[in-house]
């Protein structure tokens, strides 16, 4: 039997928690091991509960703060050495010391006033381990400098608490995102956007839902319907103000939904698009038609979605009639040149994290110039050119969207952006491309909210 000697003070690592260095007191007089933790919060489904917490691993550096999460094993009453009983959360995690690693149970408690952030009790030790109470550092010493090493921290993947803002919990996109999140070991809550309400204040603002204050989420996925754009973006802004990463930012959603504003942004970034004109006065109808090169032309309501409110006028007279009808309804609209060479086809590029991860060509019905799948169009995989790929990425970036569906037309003088969608559906693109786009979205979120080297206060020299 090979003996493993420990001193009364040792360095160890808890890799499952993303903690590469902790200085611990080894105390055989204590039965239970304890880890310093604060802001402790259970989450997740009842059948698979999780717990998240924060820790200051270096007692001398309160600026070094790490967020951890782990499966919740139990909740038990623990009596401390001073006789106080406390109900604590219990987790199981891997302890690494020297060349050895083994699973241990740890209780979570606030040890902020203690010199050691971890207490290693006797139940964490096996019969091969001998504790020398008069010695310390019998195993290799570590350093808190390990927390400044970015590559090492980014390798750790912790369970994330995610939320999706959607009024359609059963639709394909929502279900796939939930499946992908759970497959990655995370938890996802579906929140009806319209039922959120907010406490707006300078310090400590909150989002409430169903009579309770919503907890802190690592990330929120907004899937805001067009009918609740204004209120939905207000909810997203509130999450942003709380420091939550939002997959689609409020600014990107707002701009992409306003077709006029969106085309102005695209033009400012010199991104190709069909020639576009806008006017409000009936007296300017003829001038607007001539600005886009005359008929045939396309008229679009500013708030149209899924191909609704989009009309092809093949003659000037037809265009004038449609414009008159829209103006009679006091509806704002755009007039665009018709890209005849596109032949009723467009390309949907799905952009995630600055990359086009999938693309499909959509074709309209024989008697319909619109290619939207919701209007009966069909889709097939397509290989896109380098120019099309670059334009799609630039359009998403111009809208400040990490995830976007960018619709392009293939014009004679290059790709032209029709629209940038801030909540692109997954069903068509996944089934057409055969790719797991939902998993790519979750992986992007993991990369965005992964632990980063924290800012720490410089140590004062003792020389």
Short description:
With 463 residues, the chain is α+β, with helices and mostly antiparallel strands.
Describe, in plain words, how this protein is organized in 3D.
The chain has 463 residues and is an alpha+beta fold. The protein has 4 domains: 4-154, Acid Proteases (Cathepsin D, subunit A, domain 1); 161-251, Rossmann fold (3-Layer(aba) Sandwich), CATH 3.40.50.20; 275-338, Dna Ligase, domain 1 (2-Layer Sandwich); 341-448, ATP-grasp fold, B domain (D-amino Acid Aminotransferase, Chain A, domain 1, 2-Layer Sandwich). The protein is 22% helix and 34% strand. It has 10 helices and 27 strands. The protein has helices spanning 150-154, 172-183, 229-241, 250-257, 259-268, 285-291, 316-328, 386-398, 427-433, 437-449, and strands at 4-7, 9-14, 19-26, 34-36, 38-43, 50-55, 66-79, 85-97, 100-109, 118-120, 129-132, 161-165, 187-191, 196-199, 206-209, 212-213, 219-222, 245-246, 276-277, 297-301, 310-313, 333-337, 345-352, 355-363, 378-381, 403-411, 414-421. The strands form 6 sheets. It has a 9-stranded mixed β-sheet, with no helix packed on it. Helix 2 links the parallel strand 12 and strand 13 (187-191). The radius of gyration is 29 Å and the shape is elongated. Residues 150-154 and 453-463 have low confidence and may be disordered.
CATH fold-level label of the largest domain = Cathepsin D, subunit A, domain 1
Indicate the proportion of strand residues: 25-35%
Task: Report the CATH architecture of the largest domain.
Answer: Beta Barrel
The first-to-last residue Cα distance is: 46 Å
Shape: elongated
How many helices in DSSP terms? Answer: 10
Supply Rg: 29 Å
Estimate percent helicity.
10-25%
Q: Report the average pLDDT across residues.
A: 85
Please report the first level of CATH classification, the CATH class of the largest domain.
Mainly Beta
- CATH homologous superfamily classification of the largest domain: Acid Proteases
Strand order of the largest sheet: 2-3-10-4-9-8-7-6-5
Taken together, the total number of domains comes to 4
What class, by secondary structure content? alpha+beta
Major β-sheet profile: 9 strands, mixed
Uncertain stretches: 150-154, 453-463
Topology, number of strands: 27
Family: In the C-terminal section; belongs to the RimK family.
Binding site for Mg(2+) 2: 419, 421
EC number: 6.3.2.-
Keywords: ATP-binding, Ligase, Magnesium, Manganese, Metal-binding, Nucleotide-binding, Protein biosynthesis
